[in-house]
Specification:
- This protein is α+β, with helices and mostly antiparallel strands and 265 residues long.
- It has eight helices and eight strands.
- A hairpin with a 4-residue loop joins strand 7 and strand 8.
- Helix 2 packs across helix 6, helix 2 packs antiparallel against helix 7 and helix 3 packs across helix 7.
Length: 265
């Protein structure tokens, strides 16, 4: 490595630093750099481009998802913006699927029913209360409970039974069972919403395919972001001298590129 100390005319420093980087200058010392908000956004976008490149490697390998004939974007910046938007939408859909799948597990024992009809009954003062308990406990007490309340078994597994009790609004029902929240939809609606969200995920593959065939543009955009960040670091840490007319900084070059750097200097 060769170390250089530069004293530059401030008005020409940006162009000169760019020419040094083109020759292979490894680094310009930026000790003490504190990134601005704009710099932090550049860093986030650089990281985002790196994540996009990793994602696209896996995506292109999946022939069932990747469409090699997709139309590329006009620029790397557009490709990255569309990738980031598609990833946000995909994350939201995946979270929604997870929520709905959990809801579906809770709804499955209640089977198919009409929530609107249940709501109409409640409006007329006929409230359905939802319970679950251990199977052996239900079988032991079902006859006695049925003598006290209008009760109907809805479903059972090897371990549990789910049942409803018809009650008046606010009525106390002291059963040895766990009362559950009244379901707002039935299993059919939950499965319909899950299918709809999965279809939305599948549609995003068309957008990811366009990003994938724009890979070179995306790589070029990532390189331009890194160059902008390096320029921002240099400007922020260079030492101004002679009332701002001069800029002083240090840099390093690989041994094999030192001759070219020397020639430029």
């Amino acid at each position: 490595m060769s170390k250089y100390a530069f004293v530059l005319y401030a008005a020409q420093s940006d162009d000169f630093i760019g020419r040094l980087r083109e020759l292979g200058l490894v680094d310009i010392t930026t000790t003490g750099w504190e990134p601005s908000e704009e710099d932090r956004q550049l860093m986030l976008d650089i990281e985002g481009c790196a994540r996009a490149a990793e994602f696209l490697k896996t995506f292109r390998a999946d022939a069932g998802r990747f469409d090699a004939q997709a139309a590329p974007f006009a620029s790397g910046e557009e490709a990255y913006a569309r990738y980031a938007a598609a990833q946000r939408e995909a994350a939201a859909l995946q979270a929604e699927i997870g929520r709905l799948e959990k809801a579906a597990e809770e709804l499955r024992p209640w089977g198919a029913f009409d929530p609107a009809r249940v709501g109409a009954l409640a409006a007329d003062g006929v409230v359905l209360r939802y319970f679950s308990t251990q199977r052996n406990l239900f079988d032991k007490n079902a006859a006695g409970w049925s003598a006290q309340y209008a009760l109907a078994e809805i479903g059972r597994s090897d371990a549990a039974v789910w049942f409803v009790v018809v009650a008046a609004p606010g009525e106390e029902i002291p059963l040895d069972a766990q009362e559950m929240k009244a379901p707002g939809m039935d299993i059919r609606e939950a499965e319909r919403r899950i299918a709809e969200a999965r279809a939305g995920l599948a549609r995003l593959d068309a957008e990811f395919s366009r990003v994938a065939v724009s890979e070179r543009l995306l790589a070029g955009y990532a390189a331009s972001l890194r160059e902008r960040l390096q320029g921002a670091r240099v400007k922020a840490t260079a030492h101004a001298e002679a009332e701002g007319r001069l800029v002083v900084m240090e840099g390093w070059a690989e041994k094999e590129t030192s001759d070219r750097v020397d020639a430029l200097l």
